[in-house]
Amino acid sequence: MEKRYFTIGMAGHIDHGKTSLTKALTNVDTDRLKEEKERQISIELGFAPLYENEEIQISVIDVPGHERFIRQMIAGVSGIDLVVLVVAADEGVMPQTREHLEILKLLGIKTGIVSISKIERVDEEFIELVKDDILAELVGTVFEDAPVVLVDSLSHKGIEETKDLIIRTLKEQEMRDAKGAFRLPIDQVFTVKGQGTVVRGTVYEGTVEEGQILTIMPSGIEVRARQIQVHHKPAQKAYAGQRTAVNLSGVSKEDLERGDVLVSSEHFIVSKTVDVAIRVVEDLEHIVKQRMPIKLHIGTAEVMGRIVFFDRNEIKEENGEILCQLRLEEEILTKRGDRFILRRPSPQETIGGGWVIDPRGDKYRFGDRTIEELEKKKVGTPMERIIAALIEAKSLTLNELIKRTALDESSLLEELSGAEFILFNGKEYTLKSLIDSIEEDIYDRIQDFHQAQPMKSGVNKAELLQTMQNRFPKSLLDYVVENGITNQIFKRKEQFVSIAAFVPHLPKNWEKRTENMLGEIKKDGLKVRSLKEYFTAAGIPEILVSDLKRFLEDQELIVQLDEQFAYHGEVFKDAVDKLHNHTGMEFEVGVAKDVLDLSRKYMIPFLEKLDAMGLTKRVENKRVWQS
């Protein structure tokens, strides 16, 4: 079973015991770690490992304070898979509790647990009263039907039950997408002495591996992942859902900032004009006016901009979804479906939140026609949704497409029967245009290899695919190569792949010297000098010797007996025929020496070569012909 990774968040009013509960669950005090105390790549500033076995890994994010709560919670819904709402038994629901609930709702978080904390401070009767009060407040929220646990972090009462409940809940939950292109919204940038620039954040989607080439967006700076750590431990890979630090080469700390995004694909869109669907908070204190300044929180980015309506000039209160546009002062990286929060800069207030319909909006006229177009764009045709999902993930199974497109199976299969789509491996769908693009890329890579290495029969298939696996699933690359072989675009010899029409050949500038060398080897018959002497005499540089030797062997122009001697291919074949014709089914070394007139210096390597080729088999002091 594939291991799954989850991050849970603590929400609630200040001083209701979020940090204490985190410490009781994990034995990590997330408030004690300071940036200046760090001497290595650390993931635990506000984060702690909760549980891990071979099937699942769960981390906790403790985010004290309202402003930081907003920033961190918006780091996805990717950053948070389950929220523990902490409410103190001696205080009950407070203003910040309600704010956090509103934000969770706007971000679309659907899984929660209610933790009534500090229960040792009140008697049992009061706890029941507080519980009833809390449940009444939670009606209509994600926590309306959430399980309730009673805990006290100091006495550890209810801690194990809470931990078990978290684990059981997440074991029944699906992990976020680890198959798509890698995306990590950066929430911290710093340097480590002797290592350089380090960024950290929660992996929104996809995977990243050590040595991978990545891009910082929106700046477009190319970097390499030198080292990866997850909770203080070095890791070869990091997956969607993991809190991760990445040591980067190719960039300085000054070139980066919180809100930048580390990605593995060029398909993400950078934009300053975004079409969105928003909902406003229930208790809006101030009117939201047309083109009013707003602060957008998306991923880990905070960007100033203005909100543009097309069917109204202000909002006083609104229960439904509003289609509008955000025009930003700075570029952001986002894509369809990303969640965000909108805040008023002054006076500070959460206005609402929503999701991105189109990250690349245009300028539209005010009026119903624009709203109709945005409505169409919001819904999207089935074909558009399928193509968008496959452009992002490259290949998906039917079940994965059902989840991503919200289409039923019969509708999906009807659309997928079109010529635009390819089913491979009997279970995965992709775009024909993507197959053609990958095939062209592979063709160009192999052709470049042939030009650089004309003597080699082809490029190692595993090495070829490895250079492209950070952009495409291995199963898809495998299919493209095998399909190309079937269609005689490529051909394969053992593990090596080449263009179908390619024939290994000598580099033109070394053809004459190689021919002269082969002539000398043939002229010397069975009593040759060391192969190294022939290469030296022909003036062939040491750097070419290994490849040229392999080429001559592959083409059967020479047969290497051992590290020292090699025969011309024709001379070797004639010698084998002569020996076979002048001996019976078996023969001794002395007989072979007489037939071929060879000294032991040549005879022993020659006979051992026959054994290695399966032409003869040594039995005690004799050789037995195998055919």
From TrEMBL:
Function text: Translation factor necessary for the incorporation of selenocysteine into proteins. It probably replaces EF-Tu for the insertion of selenocysteine directed by the UGA codon. SelB binds GTP and GDP.
Localization per record: Cytoplasm
All copies of domain Tr-type G, residue ranges: 3-174
Record keywords: Cytoplasm, Elongation factor, GTP-binding, Nucleotide-binding, Protein biosynthesis
Organism: Neobacillus massiliamazoniensis
Superkingdom in the source lineage: Bacteria
Predominant location: cytoplasm
Pfam families xref list: Beta-barrel_SelB (PF25461), GTP_EFTU (PF00009), GTP_EFTU_D2 (PF03144), WHD_2nd_SelB (PF09106), WHD_3rd_SelB (PF09107)
Gene Ontology molecular function terms on file: GTP binding; GTPase activity; RNA binding; translation elongation factor activity
InterPro entries documented for this protein: Beta-barrel_SelB, EF-Tu_GTPase, EFTu-like_2, Elong_fac_SelB-wing-hlx_typ-2, P-loop_NTPase, SelB_WHD4, Small_GTP-bd, T_Tr_GTP-bd_dom
GO cellular component: cytoplasm
GO biological process, alphabetically ordered: selenocysteine incorporation
Segments passing through the bilayer: none
Protein name as annotated: Selenocysteine-specific elongation factor
